[in-house]
Design a protein that fits this description.
single chain; alpha+beta; Rieske Iron-sulfur Protein; 2 domains; seven-stranded antiparallel β-sheet; three-stranded antiparallel β-sheet; 6 helices
C-alpha cells in the first residue's frame, strides 16, 4: 500500500497521490483506521424516546455495513448494541419496535435492552453458560442536541470532538432546529469521499463556482481556524450585500461575521 507523507507546513504540502483516491487497499485501510474510529450520526433521539423502544440501523451502508440497534432500557438509559445474535449471527431487530427485550427469530435467544444475555431455550444443561461472549456488544453512544452519534472504536470522546463547536457557536440555538423536509434534497456524488472533502473544505473555488456568494462576501477575509477534529471557516459580508439568514430567529446584518463549522473528521 502507498505511504503518505504530508508536510505539516501547508505552504510546502502537496496534493495526495491519485492512488489514495483509487486504490482498493487504501479504501479498506481507511474503513478500519478512519471510519471505524469516527463518530457518526445514527438517528434522532426521538426514535427511542420511550422505555422499551428499539430502532435498528446499518452504520455506513456500503462502507462499514455494521448492523446496530438503538434501545432505551426500562430504566430510561439508552444504548447502541450490535444487532447480530451471539448464537448463529442472525440479525435480531429487523424493524423498529417496543418491547421489554430483544428476541432472535432463529432460535429464540433473548437479550435485555442493555445487551445482556437473558435466556435461551433448550440450553438449561449447557456448562459454563452464559458468558460475557453471549451478551450483545455495546457500542459507544452519545446524544447531542437531540441527535444520536455512535462510534465502533472511538479514537476520541464525543465531548472532546464537539467542544470547539460548543465553545464557538454556543450562541446559536441549534437544539431548537427542526428538519424542513420540503426544503431538503439529496445529491449523490460519484466520487471518492476524500476528494469530495478536499474540495468542500477550501474556499478558493468560490469566485469561480459561486459567483453570487462571491459578490456578497469579502473573499480576501476568508479565514480558517483548525482544531484537532473539525475546522471553522469564517467569512464577512460586504456592506449592503444581500442579507444571509442562517437562522430565522437570528438574522445576520450586513458587515457581520458569519461562521461556518465544517464536519468533524479525524486527522
Amino acid at each position: 500500500m502507498i505511504k503518505l507523507q504530508i508536510h505539516p507546513d501547508i505552504r510546502k504540502a502537496a496534493t495526495l497521490p491519485a492512488a489514495f483516491y483509487r486504490d482498493a487497499a487504501v479504501f479498506e485501510a481507511v474503513k478500519e483506521k478512519i471510519w471505524s474510529t469516527c463518530w457518526h450520526y445514527a438517528a434522532d433521539a426521538s426514535v427511542i424516546a420511550a422505555p422499551g423502544q428499539y430502532f435498528p440501523l446499518t452504520l455506513l451502508e456500503g462502507v462499514l455495513d455494521e448492523p446496530l440497534v438503538l434501545t432505551q432500557n426500562i430504566d430510561g438509559r439508552t444504548y447502541c448494541l450490535s444487532n447480530v445474535c451471539t448464537h448463529r449471527g442472525k440479525i435480531i431487530a429487523e424493524a423498529p419496535g417496543e418491547h421489554r427485550q430483544l428476541s432472535c427469530g432463529y432460535h429464540g435467544r433473548c437479550f435485555r435492552l442493555d445487551g445482556s444475555f437473558k435466556s435461551m431455550p433448550a440450553f438449561e444443561e449447557v456448562k459454563d453458560f452464559p458468558t460475557d461472549n453471549d451478551n450483545l456488544r455495546q457500542i459507544a453512544l452519545s446524544e447531542w442536541m437531540g441527535l444520536l452519534f455512535v462510534s465502533l472504536q472511538p479514537e476520541v470522546s464525543f465531548s472532546k470532538m464537539v467542544r470547539p463547536i460548543q465553545e464557538r457557536l454556543s450562541w446559536l440555538p441549534l437544539d431548537t432546529l427542526e428538519l424542513a423536509s420540503q426544503h431538503s434534497q439529496d445529491y449523490e456524488v460519484e466520487a471518492n469521499w476524500a476528494l469530495y472533502c478536499d474540495n468542500y473544505l477550501e474556499g478558493f473555488h468560490i469566485p469561480f463556482v459561486h459567483p453570487a456568494l462571491n459578490k456578497a462576501i469579502e473573499f480576501g477575509e476568508y479565514e480558517y481556524e483548525l482544531f484537532p477534529y473539525c475546522n471553522l471557516q469564517k467569512l464577512s459580508l460586504k456592506p449592503m450585500s444581500p442579507i444571509f439568514l442562517p437562522l430565522r430567529v437570528l438574522p445576520t446584518t450586513a458587515g457581520a461575521s458569519m461562521p461556518i463549522i465544517s464536519g468533524c473528521s479525524p486527522t
